[in-house]
Design goal:
This protein is an alpha/beta fold. It has a single domain, classed as Rossmann fold, CATH 3.40.50. It has 6 helices and 12 strands.
Length: 209
């Protein structure tokens, strides 16, 4: 699938199976999402550019690899994106953070923005947009559009689950943005939820339903 990277690491797939189970508790769901986020972060940052610097180890001098350029930005699509955000910050604690507040109109399924806050220098950084579910893709498309308006150029999108319909719409709107996901499920139902999916990620993470 062009422009889509499926992270099929056994640990990711095992943890995802537990998260899908409707009997998994809110606390367990939240913990697993954070753990999977760290594993997904390894993949989305695999291509970061390195340079070498001179350091002194206890045994002597060496040229050692280090990241080059400014640190990246994690852009969380509120509210469920924060579950992935926390796990990624565990791995890259120096990253900047952007928040994009969007909710889905229950009748039209369109994304409505209610909050936006991001660093000023997005154009100089890799921006990783995080949202657990790529379903209709309305929220993801709107979030990336908003970030591009603020100057972001190098953008990647990370989700836990994606639907084929969402991937098609997202890639049509933003063909320059690669999608990283743990799985691509069967389809969307009439309410715009991923099937078989895992339900509403925000509700399951915060125990609101």
């Amino acid at each position: 699938m062009q422009g889509v990277t499926i992270v099929d690491h056994p640990l990711v797939q095992h943890k995802l199976t537990i998260m899908r189970d409707k009997e998994t508790s809110t606390a367990g769901f939240r913990r697993l999402l954070r753990e999977i986020a760290t594993l997904l972060c390894y993949e989305v940052t695999r291509g970061l550019e390195l340079t070498t610097i001179d350091i002194e180890t206890p045994m002597g001098p060496m040229k050692a690899p280090t990241l080059v350029g400014k640190k990246l930005v994690f852009a969380s699509v509120l509210r469920a994106g924060n579950g992935l955000l926390e796990g990624m910050l565990d791995l890259v604690p120096a990253a900047r953070v952007a928040h994009v507040g969007l909710y889905r109109d229950p009748n039209t399924l369109e994304a409505i923005e209610y909050y936006f806050k991001a660093p000023d220098d997005l154009g100089d950084r890799l921006t990783v947009v995080v949202d657990p579910m790529l379903a209709t893709a309305n929220s993801a498309i709107a979030a990336v559009e908003r970030l591009k308006e603020r100057g972001a150029k190098d953008i990647r999108f990370v989700c836990l689950l994606a639907a084929p319909e969402g991937i098609e719409r997202f890639r049509g709107a933003h063909p320059d943005v690669t999608i990283f996901t743990a799985a691509v499920d069967s389809h969307l139902n009439e309410h715009g939820y991923i099937v078989p999916g895992l339900g509403d990620a925000g509700d399951r993470m915060y125990g609101t339903k």
